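Hi V.,

Quick status before I head out on leave. The structure for the redesign project is tokenized and pasted below; the design run finished overnight.
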């Protein structure tokens, strides 16, 4: 009688087929039984852990890191308790899920503070955790729409905040056609179907979803396709006329829906045996009954030659035409739907594009063309494993570590050259951003004018432009001026923030640590603003200086949680904040982040020390006698009176008459000016109102403007240096300066009374620039933490 086959006698390729039948607890127990199963190729088997993570938590597949078993195992462990949702950018339609305040709350604030709160609520430049998400359970995925953000939980439920179709938000006063939701709302299914928040049902449990500009598509466990165009209305099930769609079938069976993608203005699905099908988003009419559950799509188009499926080992091609398709095009692995093109990647390592022709008379995708890939180094059939994109932009990932970025304009030019016999067909132009090449990029998310890149180490880098300084890049504490030290150049009347070319050499990373008040402290001039004022001026006015200074800050700010003293709290090596996925659309962004709260708290504690001078300062302050007459001007008048006074002073000065605060009239000493209420959160000096005193004459009382910024607009009266020279003495005169700015907690020097941050005594950096210029100052030159990069300033951005 033959001896029974032992488990250890089976080859590894057979074992990996058995492992997926075990849950995680059983698999870990099996690996502990013997040394053979403790080998990394078994214990950290990528096939098992990616399957376990994706099926347990509904995490979308990441083809670029499909073979990294250790990464998938760590994600599985931390997803159980540590997933957090962060958003940032434009919040005008409440799409961020935080930073909102009710009218009653705002009405209790003073008008000036009310305006600042409202502005910061609309534009959020720092990643902030979305409210009311921790009670949802495990958040597996998130995606941004044009005016919304949607979350997928591990039980298959979808939650949305904002407004799905912002074009329907056309009235500023009630009643709105679609009212923005400031807090997360579960997306509903029609009457007669169970809701995923109540119990599990494969017909409504979302396996994967996709957010377009103004609609959301869901693919459920059973294979049904659902579509939403309004948060408050239930979904509609999608049926395609003439296209077979089957449920609960083998994925190789004809009609099985493998993937759904919501494009900018189109919906789509990859259907076995049919290929990529595109149609207009369905919209539930105002008069449609709530119990209507299905929409039959009459007009749709299929992308040619996308229906091919590679046969299994024991199967053969059905005919020569199918075989030729497999050799020329291959099987679709991933695809994106842009505004006017469908772009897809096949298992042959080829990229193809099809032009969407959509008019009232014709809905068609007539043909596809191969997109030539400019390759650096060796190539293989696996060099292009994935593509991602949105709106007008897309990216192609290659296994050799390259990330190529292009847009619809280049696609259209290449398309026209392919079908114009008189034009020469050139290779499509791709951008190779240095910071994305061979840096472990696994995902790219595109907004209207910006994009994010997710790296395999869990870091996020940001690129592009944030319109109106809305914070979509996620780099600035409150935008301008803090964003300047991160490499953002603010231009135009609207204050559009564009990332400098210097930042594309190594990238600018999104920081999640709340304790990085350090960047605000440095924006205020550091320990000695007076000594640093010339370096601050250079960093603001000179593009090259700003770019290099921002790189110095980037190096200093990265990896705060990698200190040797914190290694014990970072058991898995993922750090305090590890980004799992990224998303972007319109003018806002988001990320699903694994947060090691124990490590994050230790990092925060390490940044705070006791301030030994606090007690001494308090005692000396108590001993001081208040002066009976300070000589200060009265508190600034109200808005109307201030405006009238401002116009009157300018008019009288222009006519050569004494102004209301003229030194000749005895109101002010000649050659001096006074400062009221210096604000804390902006570059020094930044004042609510102040006097300009050229040649001993009060010119005017000015509204809130940065002195450095305002000086550029009045150069015919006074230079920036001269203006600083007039006002610098008042920055340190306790009789003249309000405590708003000098209070350490207001400019990032202290977290509270009796404490200070470890950087409270640091100075604004002084660098030797790459062009040989030495920044002025009295402090020693600052050192580069990771060396000064070799700038690639010729890169296309």
């Amino acid at each position: 009688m033959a001896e029974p086959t032992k488990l250890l006698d089976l080859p590894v390729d057979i074992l990996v087929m058995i492992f997926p039948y075990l849950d995680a607890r059983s698999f870990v127990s099996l690996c502990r039984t013997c040394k053979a199963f403790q080998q990394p190729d078994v214990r950290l088997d990528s096939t098992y852990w990616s399957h376990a993570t994706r099926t347990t938590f509904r995490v979308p597949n990441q083809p670029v890191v499909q073979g990294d078993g250790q990464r998938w195992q760590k994600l599985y462990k931390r997803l159980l308790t540590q997933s957090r949702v962060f958003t940032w950018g434009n919040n005008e339609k409440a799409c961020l899920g935080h930073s909102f305040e009710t009218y009653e709350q705002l009405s209790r604030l003073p008008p000036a503070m009310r305006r600042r709160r409202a502005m910061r609520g609309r534009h959020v430049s720092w990643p902030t955790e979305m409210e009311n998400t921790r009670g949802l359970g495990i958040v597996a995925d998130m995606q941004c729409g044009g005016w919304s953000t949607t979350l997928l939980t591990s039980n298959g439920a979808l939650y949305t905040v904002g407004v799905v179709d912002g074009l329907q938000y056309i009235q500023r006063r009630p009643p709105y056609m679609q009212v923005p939701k400031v807090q997360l709302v579960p997306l509903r299914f029609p009457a007669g179907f169970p809701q995923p928040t109540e119990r599990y049902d494969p017909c409504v449990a979302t396996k994967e979803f996709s957010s377009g500009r103004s609609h959301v598509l869901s693919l459920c466990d059973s294979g049904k396709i659902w579509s939403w165009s309004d948060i408050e209305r239930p979904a509609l099930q999608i049926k395609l006329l003439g296209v077979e769609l089957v449920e609960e079938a083998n994925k190789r069976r004809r009609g099985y829906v493998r993937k759904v993608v919501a494009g900018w203005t189109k919906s789509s699905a990859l259907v076995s045996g049919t290929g990529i099908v595109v149609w207009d988003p369905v919209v539930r009419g105002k008069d449609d009954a709530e119990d209507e559950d299905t929409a039959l799509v009459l007009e749709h188009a299929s992308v040619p030659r996308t229906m091919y499926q590679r046969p299994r080992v024991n199967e053969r091609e059905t005919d020569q035409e199918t075989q030729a398709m497999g050799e020329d095009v291959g099987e679709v692995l991933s695809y994106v739907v842009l505004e006017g093109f469908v772009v897809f990647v096949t298992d042959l390592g080829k990229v193809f594009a099809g032009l969407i022709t959509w008019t009232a008379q014709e809905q068609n995708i007539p043909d596809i063309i191969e997109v030539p890939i400019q390759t650096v180094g060796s190539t293989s059939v696996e060099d292009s494993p994935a593509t991602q994109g949105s709106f007008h932009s897309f990216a192609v990932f290659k296994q050799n570590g390259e990330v190529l970025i292009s847009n619809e304009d280049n696609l259209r030019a290449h398309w026209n050259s392919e079908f114009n016999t008189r034009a020469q067909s050139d290779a499509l132009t791709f951008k190779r951003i240095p910071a994305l090449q061979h840096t472990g990029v696994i995902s790219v998310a595109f907004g209207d004018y910006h994009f994010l890149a997710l790296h395999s180490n869990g870091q996020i880098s940001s690129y592009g432009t944030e319109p109106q300084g809305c914070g979509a890049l996620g780099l600035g504490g409150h935008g301008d001026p803090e964003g300047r030290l991160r490499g953002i150049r603010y231009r135009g009347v609207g204050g559009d923030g564009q990332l400098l070319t210097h930042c594309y050499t190594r990238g600018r990373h999104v920081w999640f640590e709340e304790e990085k008040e350090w960047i605000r402290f440095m924006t205020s001039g550091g320990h000695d603003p007076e000594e640093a004022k010339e370096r601050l001026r250079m960093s603001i006015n000179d593009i090259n200086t700003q770019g290099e200074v921002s790189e110095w800050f980037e190096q200093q700010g990265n990896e705060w949680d990698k200190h040797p003293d914190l290694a014990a709290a970072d058991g898995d090596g993922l750090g305090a904040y590890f980004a799992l996925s990224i998303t972007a659309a319109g003018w806002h962004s988001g990320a699903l982040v694994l947060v090691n709260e124990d490590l994050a708290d230790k990092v925060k504690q390490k940044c705070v020390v006791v301030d030994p001078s606090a007690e001494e300062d308090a005692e000396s302050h108590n001993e001081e006698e208040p002066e009976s007459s300070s000589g200060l001007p009265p508190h600034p008048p109200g808005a109307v009176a201030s405006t009238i006074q401002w116009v009157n002073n300018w008019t009288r000065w222009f006519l050569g008459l004494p102004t209301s605060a003229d030194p000749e009239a005895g109101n002010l000493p000649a050659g001096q000016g006074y400062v009221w209420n210096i604000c804390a959160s902006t570059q020094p000096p930044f004042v609510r109102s102040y006097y300009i005193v050229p040649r001993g004459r009060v010119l005017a009382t000015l509204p809130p403007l940065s002195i450095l910024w305002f000086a550029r607009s009045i150069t015919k009266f006074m230079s920036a240096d001269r203006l600083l020279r007039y006002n610098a003495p008042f920055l340190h005169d306790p009789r003249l300066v309000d405590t708003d700015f000098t209070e350490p907690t207001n400019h990032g020097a202290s977290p509270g009374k009796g404490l200070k941050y470890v950087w409270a005594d640091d100075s604004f950096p002084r660098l030797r620039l790459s062009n040989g210029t030495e920044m002025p100052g009295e402090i020693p030159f600052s050192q580069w933490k990771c060396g000064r990069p070799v700038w690639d300033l010729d890169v296309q951005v």
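Above is the designed sequence. Residues 7-80 form one domain.

G. will cover questions while I'm gone.

Best,
W.
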